[in-house]
Amino acid sequence: MTSCLDPGHGYNTAGKRSPDGSLLEYEFNQAVADIAERMLRQRGKDVVLTKKKGDPDVPLGTRCKIANNEKAKCFISIHANAHLNTWSNAGGFEVYHFPGSNTGRKLAEIAHKHLRQKLKIRDRGIKQANFAVLRETNMPAILIEFAFFTNQEECALLKTDAFREACAEVVVLTEIEYTGDPGKAAAPVSNGNKMPIIGKQYLTAGQLDAYVRSKNPNAPDLVDYYLKLGDEMGIRGDIAFCQSCKETKFFKFGGDVLPEQNNFAGIGTTGGGVRGAYFDTPRQGILAQLQHLWAYATKDPLPAGMEVIDPRFDLVSRGSAPCWEDLSGKWATDPGYGRSIIHDFYAEAKSFPDTSRVPKEDGAEIEEPGPSPQPLPEVKKAEKKQKVLHTAAIIEGQALPAVVIEGKGYVGVSDIENYLDLNALWDKKNSVIMFLRR
């Protein structure tokens, strides 16, 4: 069962930008689609995108053809909204379906419910429209306008990772509820405004490694332990690693706990020089940390066959902190402890790009990283500063957003299709786009 996500527009779409030029609509649309795709694939679900990051705009007919060829179960088009070309007070989210489509209406109602739950901005309701991507697709289809990039407050939101992830969660939850297929594993969807401790991991080894080494180039290579043990227990080992970054000052230590204790989360440490627990190996210390988190998160027994390593496992009020934010005042006395793990450490780690690293087998010795091979020097072409003018083109009485670059004018293919009710066809032989009346 495949679903289709449609990130609207492309980097070259004219006019789809904030009034101050700080945000292209394409950037938001693509980011949300990419996050949602990753979440769905983590659940083992099949998903297809109509375009990839860095692609130019794709004709609307081509987008529909991709979804139809894949026989997608549903189609969700991702957009940000605009009102005029200047800052305005128009704001909020809205969701569209094709007029008279009962299945489209059902999909829109599900999306609208999750939009109301996840986004704390104005609700503009469910609407009908004769958009090409709603009309030409063979499956239930909706188009979501998440917020306005011509509203200064909402434009700022559209740039944030937190808002983009919330929008991606709307897409994921909508797809799951409509298809009735939750997949094979829980995606990292937050519980209201909190992040559950139990759940599928989201960050990769490459991201976490790049994050910690940006703060401490000499940090020990422990990421694989966190992710492998986290997978085995069904716990967020990626966030547990971020917790250890907080506890150990990115493994520089300097507090009551010593590096040789292999205690990366301050288990048993109460301050005043109290060292806390000692563990024989880094793996044991990390396993104890994850078990301690398990004790807080759930009343369930540990996974079958797992020996209790955490010396304070039975001292925890079981199930009293199902989310990371709930650890405040429990794991540590700091009232902002849990929130800081998520909003300071995890949030920053998410901003790092993934790099290729192959996890080592459990029990294998993990060596300190050696020097990375130096890449070949990149030969850069001389950059020429282009003269760009954002304007409008009048076509058959319609004013369409346009851009002029070095004296040549460009209008978005999707805009021509939408505004003039045309279908675009790409003529490969002659390298031209032809427009046909519908």
Automatic annotation (TrEMBL):
It comes from the Bacteria. Residues 353-379 are annotated as: Disordered. Residues 64-171 form the MurNAc-LAA domain. The keyword Hydrolase applies. Keywords: Hydrolase. One of its GO terms (biological process) is peptidoglycan catabolic process. Pfam families: Amidase_3. This is Cell wall hydrolase/autolysin. GO terms for molecular function: amidase activity; N-acetylmuramoyl-L-alanine amidase activity. InterPro entries: MurNAc-LAA_cat (IPR002508), N-acetylmuramoyl_amidase_3 (IPR050695). The lineage of its organism: Bacteria, Bacillati, Bacillota, Clostridia, Eubacteriales. One of its GO terms (cellular component) is outer membrane-bounded periplasmic space.
